[in-house]
Specification:
By secondary structure, the chain is of the alpha/beta class. The chain has helices at about 10-15, 20-25, 30-40, 55-60, 70-80, 85-90, 125-135, 155, 225-235; strands at about 40-45, 65-70, 90-95, 110-115, 140-150, 165-170, 180-190, 195-205, 210-220, 235-240, 255-265. The chain folds into two domains: about 10-150 and about 220-265, Rossmann fold (3-Layer(aba) Sandwich); about 155-220, S-adenosyl-L-methionine-dependent methyltransferases, CATH 2.20.130.
């Protein structure tokens, strides 16, 4: 069971990432782009992956650094960037590193942690290290924006979630191969607020031979005031909290918890 999602171990996962419709169509891109454009200074994306948000931000004129632990995801991002104009490429810096201990040579006006990357921080030690490190790289008054999903205990602990459920029906790729994906939750552990998750990729070649790749990782669940407590400890003030990327307020039925935070003090 891989601690940080498994993207750093298998190049197939980086290849498949940009092919999953629910990732391509995720409504957070416009939300983060608007915030990036508003800043106008240096931006850091923690967990930039293949550039799903980073590249559109650079295309919109933002100067952005992308940090990721996976060399495979970063390689895919570089490959996509090579198809962009030179001025877009010049606005991007990619760094391989861990969110808990990276050290960069300049500060940022905005740090974003999109698509639940923070939920791969399993321990409180890692959570505090990540947020503290970000604080140290943010300008005073700079913003941190991150999203996690709002926990639905009934859904997560449903026995049916242990079954393999298809989330991406099989479809044909441009090269003639076919891809489908399923997922299942092996266990929900209330004592440490984690789920053991598997994402299962079935890739069938043009010769009809199929491979099965399992992405297995623990996923940390958070409650609203637990997140606010972590952020406060690490020198941040929550200035807005949304339940959807259309900026709807957080309610019991909201799928997301989107925290807009301001750095209010330095920490050691």
């Amino acid at each position: 069971m891989n601690k940080y999602g498994g993207y750093e171990d298998n190049s197939i996962l980086a290849e498949c990432y940009d092919l999953i419709p629910m990732y391509i169509d995720r409504p957070d891109i416009g939300f983060y782009l608007e915030l990036c454009r508003d800043i106008g200074g240096n931006i850091l994306e923690v967990g930039c992956g293949t550039g799903r948000i980073l590249i559109p931000a650079a295309e919109a004129g933002c100067k952005i650094t992308g940090l990721d632990l996976s060399k495979h995801m970063l390689a895919k991002c570089r490959e996509k960037l090579q198809r962009s104009d030179a001025d877009v490429q010049n606005r991007v810096r990619l760094v391989e590193g861990n969110a808990t201990n990276f050290k960069l040579d300049h500060s940022f006006g905005l740090v974003i942690i999109p698509f639940r990357v923070f939920q791969h921080m399993i321990t409180v030690e890692d959570q505090l290290a990540c947020l503290s490190n970000i604080n140290n790289h943010l300008e005073t008054g700079g913003k941190l924006i991150l999203d996690v999903f709002q926990l639905d205990i009934k859904k997560i602990s449903n026995p049916d979630s242990k079954k393999e459920i298809e989330d991406t029906p099989e479809f044909e790729l441009k090269d003639g191969r076919r891809l489908r994906r399923t997922h299942k939750v092996l266990s929900f552990n209330r004592s440490d607020q984690t789920s053991e998750v598997e994402l299962i990729y079935y890739l069938t070649g043009v010769d009809g031979k199929s491979t099965r790749t399992v992405q297995s990782f623990p996923f940390r669940h958070f409650f609203r005031y637990e997140m606010e407590h972590l952020l406060t400890r690490c020198g941040f003030e929550v200035v807005d909290l949304f339940g959807k990327f259309d900026r709807s307020p957080l309610t019991d039925d909201s799928p997301e918890m989107i925290f807009i935070c301001k750095k209010c003090r330095d920490i050691m």
